[in-house]
Amino acid sequence: MSIEQLESLSWQGLYGLAEQLSSLLPVNLEIRQWKGTAHYDAAFIARELKVIVESLAIQENNDYGSAAIAGEESEGLRALWYRLNTTVMLWVEADNPEGAAWLAANLPVIRGYARSFREMLAGSESSRKLAAENSLLKKELSAMLSVAQEALLVMDPDGRIVELNPAMSSLLESPRTQVLGSFIQEWISPGDWEHLRAARDLEERTIVPERSGRSRANWKIRVKPVYDGGQLATILLQVEAEKLEGKKYLFQKQTTYRFEDIKGTSAPIRTIKEMSQRVALSEVNLLILGESGTGKEVFAQSIHAASSRKDGAFIAINCAAIPDTLLESELFGYESSAFIGNRNESKAGRFELADGGTIFLDEIGDMSLHLQGKLLRVVQERKVERLGGMEPIDVNVRIIAATHRNLDRMVAEEKFREDLYYRLNVIPLHIPPLRERKEDIPLLLEYFMKNVSLKYGRMPKRLSPQVLERLLLYDWPGNVRELENVVEHFVQLEIGDLVTLQSLPAQIRGQIPGVMAPGRRSTRHLEENHEKETIIQLLNQLGRDTEGKRMVAEKLQVSLPTLYRKIKKLKIK
Ligand SMILES: Nc1ncnc2c1ncn2[C@@H]1O[C@H](COP(=O)(O)OP(=O)(O)OP(=O)(O)O)[C@@H](O)[C@H]1O
């Protein structure tokens, strides 16, 4: 029966309604009769019930703490209902003894209303409770996330990032507000996203992020899907930037450097740059040799970017950064049956991924003899075999290998396969250490000062002439990387815009030129050569008379007699 029909019914009374309705409703319904009123009509009651039902529907999302009041007057009768929290009260001012009988007769109709009333109330009540619980849970979740040291991220099944903590935002090097709402696919490859989405339970994997900020570290990911009613509802991610114990990365697949990024105008750097630009155009494998921090990787990337393979992948892998067995499966891939462990998937190796492009095997001197043998096969036959795979797979990959080790000596000591050495070493590129091209130092200082200041949003600082002089005297065992770090140190210092001697890092301040800096691996011979060179430079600058020599001794922080002894010993004219 509709409200309209109910409205047309005549008034029968009120008594008994309250009790009966209250037993049907999840609320206390009080219907009160106010004495002194002549009559009442059913239409009015029905309208009131309608108002209650509709108001409840409208107010579903309202704050239940506030009272909702609706009232109506009709022919001197007044009904007032209100709801405060879960209590609904309907007061009716009427005094009609026939009411009870009428209500009893029409109870099924009233019950129908009561039922929908109850359902609505129950629905709105449970959604209110749920909303309250949800909002509390959300607050608890974000509090938990904010105190966690691990980088954590919550996303929906489409990869939309709905929450992340400060550790994650710093790992992504982006403010939280900027990341919220973006998609994880902006940070990782489609293949890696597919794997994350397909995870059935807690899973771990290492991936190479598409964008990972300056660290260029790989991500060790723990992924946990959350299901609701059999449907994937949320994906939780814990990300750890791979700890590389001093290594730069395990894998990497973008190039960021071009030849124009290689700064330096000295003869040695110009020569090696020109040579690299020439060989970039050929297809030969390359071996880049040089001390740590000289820019071997910068060269490898620039060569790839200038080669005909530039549209193919550049896959870098650090052979010293991971254990041999993992390196083997990473390089060559595996078939499900063969891989030891609980994985049941097949995986392409880095050689396959680099097909049509370049593979950069960094720290090749650290590769085991066993893997050197397998690598030789790839170099010779241009085919790889996955672990446990039956069919060799053709790969068209250019290999650029690099090492800071002395491979000649390793070959002599039978620690590096001679046949592989000759295959890779078709055109060796020696990157000179910074101390052999000191004229590049001012340019590099200026270049890094500009870049690093920009990165930290600070004003570039000037170097005092004494600081510049000391930096020119220093022998830079960590090469360009060390120089970049020193500039970073300057930029971060809370000093004025002038860097003075006091601000120099200890290793540079403390170094008397020619005395080996801690960690330096150069030989005594190199050290003496360098000392000799430094003294000659200073004598040329300051003069060879006694006054000049006194100043040179002062600069070198040695006594005048010591300087004379050194001049004699090093046969300086
Ligand atoms: N000529 C250069 N111009 C500008 N920046 C350079 C140059 N050479 C090196 N760098 C910078 O120095 C740092 C070290 O370079 P890179 O990582 O290529 O050295 P590496 O020889 O591969 O070191 P390692 O042997 O430790 O792997 C990088 O940050 C790079 O940007």
UniProtKB/TrEMBL annotation:
Keywords from the named record = ATP-binding, DNA-binding, Nucleotide-binding, Transcription, Transcription regulation
Name all Sigma-54 factor interaction domain ranges: 262-492
Instruction: Spell out the CDD domains in the cross-references.
Output: AAA, PAS
SUPFAM superfamilies this protein is in? P-loop containing nucleoside triphosphate hydrolases, PYP-like sensor domain (PAS domain)
Origin: domain of life: Bacteria
The molecular function terms in GO held by this entry are: ATP binding; DNA binding
The record, for InterPro entries, names: AAA+_ATPase (IPR003593), AAA_lid_NorR (IPR058031), P-loop_NTPase (IPR027417), PAS (IPR000014), PAS-like_dom_sf (IPR035965), PAS_fold (IPR013767), Sigma_54_int (IPR002078), Sigma_54_int_dom_ATP-bd_1 (IPR025662)
UniProt-recorded name of the protein:
Sigma 54-interacting transcriptional regulator
Q: Which organism is it from?
A: Paenibacillus agri
Q: What is the lineage of its organism?
A: Bacteria, Bacillati, Bacillota, Bacilli, Bacillales
